[in-house]
Design a protein that fits this description.
- The protein contains no helices and 11 strands.
- The protein is mainly β.
- The protein has strands at about 1-5, 10, 15-25, 30-40, 45-50, 55-60, 65-70, 75-80, 90-100, 110-115, 115-120.
- The radius of gyration is 13 Å and the shape is globular.
Amino acid sequence: VQLQASGGGLVQAGGSLRLSCAASGGTFSSYVMAWFRQAPGKERMFVAAIRLSGGSSVYADSVKGRFTISRDNAKNTVYLQMNSLKPEDTAVYYCAARGGQVVHRSRWSYDYWGQGTRVTVSS
């Protein structure tokens, strides 16, 4: 499956952005979808993941209550709504997919990756 992330940009602290990740070449509804982020000089970290039907999601503690992951299986797209953004949210954001029904927080558990979209939050 191929993943194409978009929606990044420059925003002031307290602002909002919505990232999108469009999938093609596979059965989107059979994949757990996730977002990770990688800040300069740091490892790629888990942000959020959503199960197949979209009924259950998991978040990193650092974004819980501010970010919302959702998916539209009819459009083969997963979203990350980011509100109340902070400078420490600055990173390149990657969408990822894995087969099966189990959500994993480890990047090593995901088989497919998008190219990343950069989010910069100014103070």
